[in-house]
Amino acid sequence: MKEYNPPADRVHYRNDEHILKVSGSETLSAAPDQATITLGVITEDKDPQKAQQANSQAIANVIASLKSAGIPEEQLKTSDYRIDPQYDYIDGKELFKNYKVQHIIQAQTTDIEKIGSIIDTAVRSGANSITSIRFSLSNPDAYYNQALSLALKNAYEKALSMARTLGISLNPVPNKVEELSETATPMLYQTSTFSKMATTPIQPGELNITASVRVEYTY
Questions:
Q1: Across residues 204-218, what is the average pLDDT?
Q2: Which of 95, 100, 89, 111 is nearest to 36 (CA)?
Q3: pLDDT the model gives residue 3
C-alpha cells in the first residue's frame, strides 16, 4: 500500500478546512501475450533405475518436441523432479508397490495461438502429466499505470460531484492519496480444463488489471 502526501510548501491549511474522503477504482482488460505451460513425465517401476531411465528418455523426447515446436531452450526449465516409493494398503498393512519418478518442466511461449498444438505435440512425445497453463502479460505495469491514472480521475469526479451537491468549494489538489495494492491476476487453467482432449482447444480470454485508490481532498 502506497501513500502520496504533497510537499509541505504546497499544502496550506486553514483553520476552517475540512476533509472529504473518496475512493476510486478502474479495471482494464487486456489479452495475455505470454503463457507458461507446466507439464512432464511420470514413470513407475519396481526397479528405481529402470523408472529413472524410462523417465529420462521420455522427458528428453518431450523437450526435443517442444524445441521443434518453436520454444527456445532458455524458455524451458525443470520445476520439479522427485523419486518416491509407492505403497498399497491392504488390511491395514503397507505393501511396497513400485517407485514413481516425476519430472515436471515449465515451458514459456508468446505464441498464444499455438498453445493447444504445443500441448498435443508434447503428449504425443511422451508427456503424461499436464498440470496447468498460466496466462499473463509481459508488461503488466503499463496497463496498471493506466488503470491507476483512471482510478485517480474516478476519485476526483466522485469528490467533485459530492462537492457540487453539497454546495462546497473543493480544492482540486489532493491532500492525501493512498494506493491500494491491486494488479493483473494471471489466468490459470488447471489440468481438468483440458484433459482427455484429442486436439486441445485453449481460449485464453482476457486478464483484468485493477487499480484502486483512496483520496482525501480539502474544502
A1: 94
A2: 111
A3: 59
